[in-house]
Amino acid sequence: MVEMEEMPEEVIRKYLEAGRIAREVRDYSEKIVKPGASVLEVCSELERMIVEKGGSPAFPCNISINEVAAHYTPLHNDETTIPPDAVVKIDLGVHIDGYIADTARTIDLSDKHVLLLEASREALEKAIETLKPGIRAFELGLQIERVIKRYGFKPVRNLTGHSIDRFRIHAGLSIPNYGDRFSVSKISDNMAVAIEPFATNGKGLTREGKIANIFSVAKENPRKLDEETREVFNYIVEKYRTLPFTPRWLVPVFGEKRVEHAMRVMVKTKTLYVYPILVEVGRGLVSQFEHTILLANGDKIVTTR
Ligand code: MN
Ligand code: MN
Fold first, then answer.
1. Per residue in 82-117, is it b (16+ CB within 10 Å) or e — as a string?
2. 147 and 222: one domain?
3. Which in 36, 84, 166, 275 has the greatest CB count within 10 A?
4. Residue 3 resides in a domain
5. CATH number of the domain within which 224 lies
6. Catalytic one of 122, 196, 280, 291
7. What's the gap in Å between 169 CA and the centre of ligand 2?
8. Is 76 marked active-site?
9. How far apart are CA 283 and CA 205, in angstroms?
10. For residue range 243-265, what is the model confidence (pLDDT) as tens digits?
């Protein structure tokens, strides 16, 4: 490994700006996540707020309810409403010029799951405290696992935190939510990471569900796209690069029929990665808290706090 150069002030400023916007929008979500609220309206409003504040969504607003751990985002005609007593995870990404803040919180509409929420929240705090250059990722996972188990819950073992690069939400290094001895990669200075403990009263594992409303570009130069699809593809590449997007964002630009066709072709030709919803295998309730932390020039800054 070559010696890392200093992180430029301009880059740090953009990370901090993205973090501030993500924090404000995440905290606002508590006011609009209510029983009976439309998931489409909640996500649209949060994404609109990100843009109003000068940022861009780094991925579609995720609103994952109860045993759905992650990756649910509404379609443009989604009529789902938030059920009473739901455990709702809001997971948001903001970027400024490709510099990303990724943050999540859980809202317990019943107030019956205080400890489930506290388990993932405290695990996150403990991991942030432990985080420093040179530490191995599994040591963070070990801390997370210990805290969550102390509360009597299980960490979700197949969901992880991650390093972040410019325009790359998952940049290669994973931060496990348990003491995974295979996670030997070391955290380094001048690195942005997202830590996101998930706690559950289920089995501690997720499987892919049938719904998939989040995608990202997998092939930069796909062949075999018809002209109509190619135009949609070019728009996605220009607007979102390799960041995740949802067809909901394309409908106002291209119309429902055309988006449906283009999505079908791009999925079939493996032009896109598909991110199905992730469901807890024991149908347990899942809580999640997430912050983005910037290690820069010897400092540790939680950009989303
Ligand atoms: Mn996230
Ligand atoms: Mn994340």
1. beeebbbbbbbbbbbebbbbbbbbbbbbeeebeebb
2. no
3. 275
4. no
5. 1.10.10.10
6. 196
7. 7
8. no
9. 10
10. 999 999 999 999 999 999 999 99
Total of domains in the chain = 2
Note if 125 is an active site residue.
Answer: no
pTM: 0.96
Cα of 102 to ligand 1 centre, how many Å? 5
Are 96 and 188 members of one domain?
Answer: yes
Give the ligand at the shortest distance from the Cα of 60: 1
pLDDT greater than 70 at residue 1: no
Q: Which domain holds residue 295?
A: 9-208+281-302
CA of residue 123 relative to chain centroid, distance: 17
The SS3 assignment for 40 reads helix
Residue 13 resides in a domain = yes
Q: Which of 108, 170, 231, 261 is catalytic?
A: 170
266 and 198 share one domain: no
Catalytic residue among 91, 122, 139, 280: 91
Based on the residue annotation, tell me whether 290 is a catalytic residue of this protein: yes
Kindly report, residue by residue over 166-219, the tens digit of the pLDDT. 999 999 999 999 999 999 999 999 999 999 999 999 999 999 999 999 999 998
Closest CA to 68 of 213, 169, 174, 248: 213
Residues 192 and 223 in one domain: no
**CATH label of the domain that carries residue 58:** 3.90.230.10
Q: Is 227 a catalytic residue?
A: no
